[in-house]
Amino acid sequence: MHEGLPTSDGLSFTDCCSPQYVLQKFASYFDDVGKVSKTFIDGKENVNLINVKYLELFGKLYHTVQTTLMISLKCGNIFSSKCQRPSNANVVVSASQYDTNIAAQMNENRQKREEEVAKLLTMLDVTAIKSAHAEFIA
Description:
Elements: H1 13-16, H2 19-60, E1 62-73, E2 87-98, H3 100-137
Antiparallel strand pairs: 1-2
C-alpha cells in the first residue's frame, strides 16, 4: 500500500452489504471521479482545439510573395566587357517568405498546449491517489 494513505477503516462484510453505508462512505470519491472525468474530457477537447489551431497556423507560416528582378544582360566575355548595347530585362519571380508573427503564434500555441497537458497529468496523479485511497478503504 501507498505510504501516504490513511489507515483502513476496517469495513465488515455487513458494512459492504449495506448500500446506504457504501454510498455514504464512497460518495465523495464518486463525486471527485465524476468531476475529474468531466474536467479531463474538457481538457482533452482543449488540447485538440489547440492542435487544430496549430495546424491552421502551420499552413500560414510561409506565404508566397512576388518580386521583380531587374537583370542586365551584357555582351562580351571575361576578358572584354565592351558592350555597345546591354540588354535589360525585368523578371517577375515568386518566393516563399517566412512569417515571424505566425511563428511566434505557433510558439505560444505550443506553450499553451504544454500547460494544458501538464494540468491533465497533475489531475491524473491526484485522481490516481484518490482511486487508490478508495480501493484501500474497500
